From TrEMBL:
Domain called PLD phosphodiesterase: residue spans: 201-228, 383-410
Name of the protein this chain belongs to: Cardiolipin synthase
Topology with respect to the bilayer: Multi-pass membrane protein
SUPFAM superfamilies: Phospholipase D/nuclease
Lineage per the UniProt record: Bacteria, Bacillati, Bacillota, Erysipelotrichia, Erysipelotrichales
PANTHER family, A to Z: CARDIOLIPIN SYNTHASE, PHOSPHOLIPASE D
Gene name of the encoded protein: clsA_2
Localization terms from the record: Cell membrane
Segments passing through the bilayer: 6-22, 29-51
Pfam families cross-referenced by the UniProt entry: PLDc_2, PLDc_N
Length: 470
């Protein structure tokens, strides 16, 4: 035991030197790691191995960047106000995300309507179906999806499915046996594999992407499972947000899917196959509806926090209102201070979180921020159900919808994707849904903090500290 303690202390000392002189950490995060390594060296070393955020190298498939440049879509002059123009320029320069102008859209606030349309689109597929989900349950919805995909693969449609091995922890690979036997390709994203420092298993692909025939695309917060249809009594009613797109922006979703596909597939011949089938992977746009948007994705294979900083840029631009829906509110200091500055500047800020907790630790960390938000005159609402929607709306004229939660994992560790939408018609749908949700909410008042038990306060403090490291 003494030898193990000595070894752990030596390793801890080495890790502290790495953190101080090699890693560029925020002061609060650096201090949290140092305290853990000094006072609990064995636990600190294990947690560092599991949770330290080490940028991952980009994999093969870099030729897709050239494809993206070649197929930039239709160019047209469009009049955007200064606020939106500034955000567009930021995304173009910082995130290399171009502005897509023409798309038809459908906005889904519940799983039933989303699945009905998705399954209808899958049934109509002629050439290719590409899907990527964080969670695919072995339940009624999951079985219906796999059955449809199996039928399409048997008809000769190319089916490629990527599922996250952590999100689908309870889903067996043999669950997809019929699909694979019919010719479909199924891949796990980052199954448990040790690396020298850190674990690939900690880096989860939280994106939800579907691209059908290179023409129809889906992204948002909904995975595949009964709970998204409010069929699980523990999480009912379930509220969420998802988008269906037809038009230029689908090229960006296809590009993102194919890059993620190259992270999991081992078939070198697929590069030539993809190059030979670009016309149906990147089909001609069909939409003539002007709906400007940008698609931004990030993850541990980048050195920048693309989506988080775009959130911050949006908040900085707010003049009248900021409306946020998120299942988890665990921001870093930059996001939180930017939100508070907006509130102190006279912007009406509303944050909606769920009443139902799916993870106790995450929920207690979220509630630890309520007092701080209310002190900045930010209205906090508890949705009476489970709120999984990930939306930020600015001045009722622009919004973002995607897979990104307002927490450290989405900001720093997970692979995420969001649409930043500069169309008032679509934004007003999100605003309308926010107003409907307010009717099913409780406004947090002074009694909330006053009635907290000593144990809950203790939990919040401990979990909030730990959340900086996970």
């Amino acid at each position: 035991m003494a030898i193990l303690m000595f070894i752990s202390r030596v390793i801890s000392l080495f890790l502290m030197v790495v953190l101080i002189f090699y890693k560029r950490k925020e002061p609060a995060l650096l201090m949290a790691w140092l305290l853990l390594l000094v006072f609990l060296p064995p636990i600190g070393c294990v947690m560092y191995l599991l949770f330290e955020r080490t940028p991952l190298p980009r994999k093969a498939g870099l030729f897709l960047n050239d494809i993206k440049d070649e197929r930039r879509g239709r160019q047209a002059s469009v009049s955007l106000n200064d606020k939106i123009t500034s955000l567009v320029h930021f995304n173009e320069n910082y995130n290399s995300s171009r502005l897509y102008l023409y798309q038809d859209f459908m906005y889904f606030a519940d799983g039933k309507s989303k699945y009905q349309q998705l399954f209808k689109d899958i049934e109509g597929a002629k050439q290719s179906i590409h899907l990527q989900y964080f969670i695919i349950r072995e339940d009624e919805v999951g079985r219906q999806l796999v059955q449809l995909l199996t039928e399409k693969a048997a008809q000769g449609v190319e089916v490629r499915l990527i599922f996250d091995s952590a999100g689908c922890f309870g889903t067996r690979l043999k669950y997809f046996a019929s699909l694979m036997e019919a010719g479909g390709q199924v891949y796990q994203f980052h199954p448990p594999t040790f690396r020298l420092i850190g674990l690939n298993y900690n880096y989860r692909n939280h994106r939800k992407i579907v691209v059908i025939d290179g023409r129809i695309g889906y992204l948002g917060g909904m995975n595949i499972g009964n709970e998204y249809m409010s069929l699980d009594p523990k999480f009912s009613p379930w509220r969420d947000a998802h988008l269906r797109l037809v038009g230029d922006a689908v090229w960006e979703l296809q590009h993102r899917f194919l890059k993620d596909y190259y992270m999991v597939c081992d078939h070198q011949e697929d590069e030539r196959y993809i190059k030979d089938h670009l016309n149906h992977y990147f089909a001609s746009p069909l939409s003539t509806t002007l709906c400007p948007m940008q698609i931004v994705s990030d993850g541990p294979d980048t050195t920048t926090d693309d989506i988080k900083l775009t959130f911050v840029k949006m908040i900085q631009s707010a003049v009248h209102t900021i409306q946020i829906q998120t299942p988890y509110f665990i921001p870093d200091s930059l996001f939180l201070e930017t939100l508070k500055i907006a509130a102190y500047s006279g912007v009406k800020v509303e944050v909606m979180i769920p009443t139902i907790a799916d993870h106790h630790y995450v929920y207690r960390t979220t509630t630890s921020f309520i007092k701080e938000l209310r002190e900045a005159n930010i209205d906090v609402y508890f949705y009476k159900g489970f709120l999984h929607s990930k939306i930020i709306i600015i001045d009722e004229e622009l919004c973002t919808i995607g897979s990104t939660n307002i927490d450290q994992r989405s900001f720093k560790i997970n692979y995420e994707i969001n649409a930043f939408i500069y169309d008032k018609t679509l934004t007003r749908q999100a605003v309308h849904q926010f107003q409907l949700d307010l009717e099913n909410c409780l406004l947090v008042d002074d009694s909330y903090e006053q009635n907290k038990s000593a144990w809950i306060r203790f939990e919040e403090k401990v979990y909030r500290l730990v959340s900086m490291l996970l």
